[in-house]
Design goal:
Elements: E1 4-9, H1 16-29, H2 32-37, E2 38-43, H3 49-58, E3 64-67, H4 84-89, E4 94-97, H5 100-106, H6 110-122, E5 126-131, H7 135-139, H8 143-155, H9 160-165, E6 167-170, H10 184-202, H11 204-209, E7 211-214, H12 223-227, E8 234-237, H13 244-251
Parallel strand pairs: 1-2, 1-8, 2-3, 3-4, 4-5, 5-6, 6-7
Helix pairs in contact: 1-3, 1-13, 6-8, 8-10
């Protein structure tokens, strides 16, 4: 049985001092039973990673540390970039790759996403691979073509065991930060399609093991309906993860 996962993508929000307060408050609001049912991940900005790591370790919080981005090289003349070894040494366990904001604003294509994903894996961290279509693409009826291409662009060449261990996040671009959310059925249809593609390429066992999240204006008001769908294993959460009360409510979606 797949364990649910709630990952908070804080994006370019919070100083390191604010991040300390946020993760402490989140830790106060969750109980040991919550972590038994759900893996809880926070992805602060790079400048707050060390501070959050220190709080997690000193307070013995079962919250896991994630990063929002990474460069594929281990070192070199890449001003402003952060390498996989740098993240791994900070105790980072998860790394988001292929987020639509990286694709759209910074020109990252499927080849770049694939290189980053493999670099993350090489350093024993788990990638959260984001895929998603624009509103125009959905209206054109090519959602499956777009997300299928993104999925294979990132994962082709990996073996079944590796694919089973990573996380895919379906994030329709038209629902990110807009207040619009894909309906439960729309989300389930897209995620079911992705799971089917994994089954075709890597086998049914792999498709049953890989975790696929939904992202896009996830909040306490819509999470229960989304999580009621068999193929949805959690959320990649944006704005709601900045509020410890809201994020804790998402972790406890079944209550």
């Amino acid at each position: 049985m797949r364990k649910d996962l709630m990952a908070g993508n804080w994006k370019m929000n919070s100083t390191h001092l604010e991040a300390i307060q946020m993760v402490q408050k989140l830790g106060y609001r969750l109980d040991p039973a919550d972590y038994e049912r759900v893996d809880v991940v926070v992805c602060p900005p790079f400048t707050a990673l060390r501070s959050v790591q220190t709080v997690i370790e000193s307070d013995y919080l079962p919250i896991e540390l994630g990063a929002q981005n990474v460069h594929w090289e281990e070192s070199g003349a890449f001003t402003g970039e952060v390498s996989p070894p740098m993240l791994a040494r900070l105790g980072v366990k998860w790394v988001i790759v292929g987020h639509s904001e990286r694709r759209q604003m910074f020109g990252e294509d499927d080849k770049v996403v694939a290189r980053k994903l493999r670099a993350v894996l090489e350093h024993q961290m788990t990638p959260i691979v984001a895929v998603g279509e624009t509103l125009e693409q959905r209206e054109e009826g090519i959602t499956e073509e777009v997300i299928g291409t993104q999925l294979h662009g990132a994962l082709d060449g990996l073996d079944a065991e590796t694919v089973a261990s990573l996380v895919v996040a379906y994030e329709p671009i038209w629902a990110i930060g807009t207040g619009r959310t894909a309906s439960d059925d729309q989300a389930a249809e897209a995620i079911g399609f992705l799971r089917g593609r994994v089954a075709e390429a890597w086998g049914e066992e792999t498709s049953e093991r890989v975790r696929i999240l939904y992202g896009g204006s996830v909040n306490p008001g819509n999470i229960a309906g989304l999580m009621a769908k068999r193929d949805i294993d959690g959320g990649l959460v944006g704005g709601a993860s900045l509020d410890p009360d809201k994020f804790a409510a998402l972790v406890r979606y079944w209550m």
